Fold these 2 entries.
Entry 1:
Amino acid sequence: MKMQSNTMFITGGGSGIGRGLAEAFHKLGNQIIIAGRREETLKKTCEANPGMRYVYMDVTDAASIRSGAAEVTSRFPQLNWVINNAGIQREHHFTHGETVSDDVIEREIDTNLLGLIRVSAALLPHLRRWEMLH
């Protein structure tokens, strides 16, 4: 696996683990494009890391994934890596008889499972074409 000179797209790349991954790979000489739903956070991360770029994408919104995938593949046709990092985790106390909100659980599933599947499905055709050409 080549760790340098890649074009990498990282969801959830504006903060936390995603930002750490983005910055580490950026320092290795990769073109990094981060995605997330908080545009101000994405801008600040890119400002702190000259050359890093961002694309707005909310992984819980299928339309946002489609438009974000179209934008990233159009602007960065050399895209050859995707890191599905976006995720959330809430604390649930099932054993304490606490009522757990379906909305909270559904948001986690939309982000952590459906988001990953939808982002992968949206970018896989591009990655397959890129691989065939290189």
Note: Residues 7-133 form a domain with the Rossmann fold fold (CATH 3.40.50.720).
Entry 2:
Amino acid sequence: MQARGGPGAPHTGVVTEFDDPRGLGALRDDDGRLFPFHCSALSDGSRTVAVGTRVAYTVVAGHGGRYEARAVNPLLTS
């Protein structure tokens, strides 16, 4: 049995940190798990995202056996 929200499943969360010069960031999902991402994972074509931005993304196996966020898509707020 696969855990809820496993790899490849859609997730939502909030960007908790982003280093513009390096293009590296991290986001926390709604269950409190932390996932790193690179600016190339931003789906909207931008190379930056503000801390606190709510995003949708998928989780994939990354380098070194760690899971990371991919297809990071900022969500519109109303």
Note: The first strand starts at residue 10 and ends at 19.
